[in-house]
């Protein structure tokens, strides 16, 4: 049995994978089973910031363990990946805020959508990272494709102008769900589905609630963002363990990050510019360092550049929007304040 724990799987001993997942499940159980046993508890901004700091700090502690056990290079790559993934997840938070407010999900019920969304995200990211690792290790040139995609995504994000968000109710997935399933007009507590009488036969049948629609859209948004984030982390390192652990730690704090930032959507107007520059930098790094081998870019340089872009984007955003209040903000933000 002991020998099995030291067998390698995806480049690392089995015990490392089992230990990490045990840590993740413990954190989820602590978060869901202890911190938030009260389903009607509304998470405030202060509590959200504390939880965000806790999860990010724990991620850094794990990075310290990687430094001790695996060395400085993997640790620097892990921290860079963690920062990049956390940065991209901030953009994801703003999209989730639009989804939940557009569907009229009250703040007390939003955490349930986010809980199941995070659990689904952990599974989906694992599958996507596994696929990405298989592609990269089978054909190293796949990194060049990732680089091209990151450059395209970064430039597109940089030059695209902010437009009014479309009505979530007109989303293709929402329309399909409403055509395919019976959907209640309003919420039924915090349930995703309920049994109600059929309008014609009167027999009890299964109905979805708007909470279920929100969950589908939130998971869809995460898949879309994963298309950016997974190539980005593989551009930083091809160590599957580092890729996976940095991704999961970034996801674990997503729920707390949401409640901290949902009411401040417009305060981060220039965050997208910073994220675009980060993607462009990472894509360029692959081209010059891996594809053409023109220059070696140390992991600490990637981390430093990422932190500088992120800090500059956040700081400039907060400076430009200083003094703004919820009443001065667009409707989506005002809804987030009232939720």
TrEMBL record:
Membrane spanning stretches:
14-36, 48-68, 88-106, 113-135, 141-159, 205-227, 233-257, 269-288, 300-319
Q: Which InterPro entries match?
A: Integral_membrane_TerC, Integral_membrane_TerC_rswitch
Q: Name one Pfam family in it.
A: TerC
Q: What keywords sit in the KW lines? A: Membrane, Transmembrane, Transmembrane helix
Membrane association type: Multi-pass membrane protein
The subcellular location is:
Membrane
Q: Which family does it belong to?
A: Belongs to the TerC family.
State the PANTHER family in the record.
Answer: MEMBRANE BOUND PREDICTED REDOX MODULATOR, THYLAKOID MEMBRANE PROTEIN TERC, CHLOROPLASTIC
Protein name, entry field: Membrane-bound redox modulator Alx
According to its UniProt entry, this protein's organism is Methylobacterium jeotgali
Q: Give the source lineage, highest ranks first.
A: Bacteria, Pseudomonadati, Pseudomonadota, Alphaproteobacteria, Hyphomicrobiales
Q: Supply the gene name.
A: alx
């Amino acid at each position: 049995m002991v020998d099995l724990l030291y067998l390698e799987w995806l480049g690392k001993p089995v015990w490392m994978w089992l230990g990490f997942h045990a840590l993740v499940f413990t954190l989820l159980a602590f978060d869901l089973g202890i911190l938030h046993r009260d389903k009607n508890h509304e998470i405030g901004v202060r509590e959200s910031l504390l939880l965000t700091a806790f999860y990010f700090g724990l991620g850094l502690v794990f990075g310290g363990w990687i430094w001790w056990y695996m060395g400085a290079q993997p640790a620097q790559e892990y921290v860079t990946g963690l920062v990049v993934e956390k940065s991209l997840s901030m953009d994801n938070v703003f999209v989730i805020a639009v989804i939940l407010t557009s569907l009229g999900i009250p703040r007390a019920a939003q955490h349930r959508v986010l809980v199941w969304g995070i659990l689904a995200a952990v599974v989906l990211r694992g599958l996507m990272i596994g696929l990405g690792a298989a592609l990269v290790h089978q054909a190293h040139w796949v990194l060049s494709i990732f680089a091209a995609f990151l450059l395209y995504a970064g430039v597109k994000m940089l030059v695209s102008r902010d437009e009014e968000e479309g009505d979530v109710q007109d989303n293709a997935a929402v329309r399909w769900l409403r055509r395919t399933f019976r959907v209640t007009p309003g919420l039924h507590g915090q349930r995703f589905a309920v049994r109600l009488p059929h309008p014609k036969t009167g027999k009890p049948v299964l109905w979805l609630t708007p909470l279920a629609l929100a969950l589908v859209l939130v998971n869809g948004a995460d898949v879309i963002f994963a298309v950016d984030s997974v190539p980005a982390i593989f551009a930083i390192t091809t160590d599957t363990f580092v890729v996976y652990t940095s991704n999961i730690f970034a996801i674990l704090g997503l729920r707390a990050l949401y409640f901290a930032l949902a009411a401040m959507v417009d305060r981060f107007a220039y965050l997208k510019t910073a994220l675009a520059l980060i993607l462009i930098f990472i894509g360029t790094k692959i081209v010059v360092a891996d594809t053409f081998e023109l220059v070696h870019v140390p992991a600490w340089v990637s981390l430093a550049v990422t932190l500088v872009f992120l800090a500059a984007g956040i700081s400039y955003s907060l400076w430009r929007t200083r003094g703004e209040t919820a009443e001065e903000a667009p409707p989506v933000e005002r809804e987030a304040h009232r939720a």
